[in-house]
């Protein structure tokens, strides 16, 4: 009896496409998505009882492994105090203070319920602050599903080949200008033309929604000076990279200070949380201090705040990122060796607990380089790994995530699976 297949058939009767978020649907690789029953440490178990080493980590949050005992204990304790108050509570202050202390560019931070809410609110704030309407984003970057961002976006939008989504009014999409990632000249030229009308440049400082692409040296610095020159707000979307590539996120790694930053994933410890924060003079434009409206019935939810704080405590332990980065490095080095031995063109990218895999020997520095990657090879590799109990992101355009529970044994098991999967 295939419980998974039965559940997916039933899900399709009641849920569009059988999933509540398109990237889960295996559209990029074919086949039925896995329905998960339980998860612990580096493993997830599907409804047929098969166990997988998980390299998705709920798309980022599970940096300390699934069902981490410290996070669970914090949530259990919070449950007993009450699920939601709709009034301020200490847990919100605790998490906000942790974030502000950890990231020098954040003077004030506002909690929301998802990454999309964080980016959407940050853009509204930047527009209100500058009194300008246009924004610039980069081809292949994904900032959630708010109207302004579904223009040449990455992630599921890219996997499904949707250049712009129906339902987004043209008048809104026209305000989102796009340029290729990692091409500073292109950005300089655009800013020379329209810089005075640009409210914000929003960027994933490491692009993680078109596989994983690091910024070229000087690129983020160039963006910073253009924003200073034209009075535009620089927004780093660190929903994925925040607390993932380093404790202080990509801004710490590259030493570039944005005006606003958006967070999600890790700061919720697995519960629905997003946040945006940054310069006090800008953040003071948000209601109730200022005129830019933003709100949320469940924002700062006590369970989510407890999970987030427990997670921040865990990742603040000395040596956490050194170990995590080391394990990610072992994984990508091991996969490179496996591919080299098999004579398969392959390259990779990694920072902290985040990695990208490419079936090409070209150096991938931009969206167009992804065309050189062998997507069919990725699909075969993905399924062969899945068969052997290794769960990679089901798309050639998604980054992968390692947790602190991916110990040497887990990495070795992954590489053993890869040795045969690479021949697929
Ligand atoms: N920004 C980035 C960089 C993301 O990777 C994502 C989600 N993958 C989002 C925003 C949107 O976050 P959410 O799915 O929580 O709305």
From TrEMBL:
Keywords: Cytoplasm, Isomerase, Porphyrin biosynthesis, Pyridoxal phosphate. GO terms for molecular function: glutamate-1-semialdehyde 2,1-aminomutase activity; pyridoxal phosphate binding; transaminase activity. InterPro entries: 4pyrrol_synth_GluAld_NH2Trfase, Aminotrans_3, Aminotrans_3_PPA_site, PyrdxlP-dep_Trfase, PyrdxlP-dep_Trfase_major, PyrdxlP-dep_Trfase_small. The keyword Isomerase applies. It is an enzyme of class 5 (isomerase). The keyword Cytoplasm applies. It catalyses: (S)-4-amino-5-oxopentanoate = 5-aminolevulinate. Its cofactor is pyridoxal 5'-phosphate. It is found in: Cytoplasm. Gene3D superfamilies: Aspartate Aminotransferase, domain 1, Type I PLP-dependent aspartate aminotransferase-like (Major domain). The modification N6-(pyridoxal phosphate)lysine is found at residue 265. SUPFAM superfamilies: PLP-dependent transferases. Its main location: cytoplasm. Its EC number is 5.4.3.8. One of its GO terms (biological process) is protoporphyrinogen IX biosynthetic process. Belongs to the class-III pyridoxal-phosphate-dependent aminotransferase family. HemL subfamily. NCBIfam families: hemL, PRK00062.1. Homodimer. This is Glutamate-1-semialdehyde 2,1-aminomutase. It comes from Marinicella litoralis. The gene is hemL.
């Amino acid at each position: 009896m295939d419980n998974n297949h039965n559940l997916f058939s039933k899900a399709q009767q009641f849920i569009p496409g059988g999933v509540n978020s398109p990237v889960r649907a295996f559209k990029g690789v074919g086949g039925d998505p896995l329905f998960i029953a339980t998860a612990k440490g580096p493993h997830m178990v599907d409804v047929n009882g098969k166990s997988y080493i998980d390299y998705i980590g709920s798309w980022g949050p599970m940096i300390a492994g699934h069902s981490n005992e410290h996070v669970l204990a914090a949530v259990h304790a919070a449950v007993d105090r009450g699920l939601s108050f709709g009034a301020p509570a200490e847990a919100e202050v605790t998490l906000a203070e942790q974030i502000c202390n950890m990231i020098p560019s954040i003077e004030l931070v506002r909690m929301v319920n998802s990454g999309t809410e964080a980016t959407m609110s940050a853009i509204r704030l930047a527009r209100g602050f500058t009194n300008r309407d246009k924004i610039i984003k980069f081809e292949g970057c994904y900032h959630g599903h708010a109207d302004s961002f579904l223009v040449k976006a990455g992630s599921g939008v890219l996997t499904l080949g949707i250049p712009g989504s129906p339902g987004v009014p043209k008048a809104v999409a026209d305000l989102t200008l796009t340029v290729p990632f990692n091409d500073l000249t292109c950005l300089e030229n655009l800013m020379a033309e329209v810089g005075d009308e640009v409210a914000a440049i929003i960027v994933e400082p490491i692009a993680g929604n078109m596989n994983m692409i690091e910024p070229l040296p000087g690129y983020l610095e160039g963006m910073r000076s253009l924003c200073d020159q034209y009075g535009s707000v620089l927004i780093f979307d660190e929903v994925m990279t925040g607390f993932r590539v380093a404790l202080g996120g990509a801004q710490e790694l590259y030493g570039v200070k944005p005006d606003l930053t958006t967070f999600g994933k890790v700061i919720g410890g697995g519960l629905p949380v997003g946040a945006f924060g940054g310069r006090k003079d800008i953040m003071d434009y948000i209601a109730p201090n200022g005129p830019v409206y933003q709100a949320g019935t469940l924002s700062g939810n006590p369970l989510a705040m407890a999970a987030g704080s427990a997670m921040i405590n865990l990742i603040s332990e000395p040596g956490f990122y050194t170990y995590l980065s080391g394990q990610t490095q072992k994984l990508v080095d091991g996969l490179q060796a496996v591919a080299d031995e098999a004579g398969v063109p392959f390259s990779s990218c990694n920072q902290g607990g985040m990695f990208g895999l490419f079936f090409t020997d070209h150096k991938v520095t931009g969206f167009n380089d992804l065309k050189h990657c062998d997507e069919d090879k990725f699909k075969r590799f993905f399924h062969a790994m899945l068969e052997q109990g290794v769960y990679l992101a089901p798309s050639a355009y998604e980054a992968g995530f390692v947790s602190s529970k991916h110990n040497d044994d887990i990495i070795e098991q992954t590489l053993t699976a890869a040795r045969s999967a690479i021949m697929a």
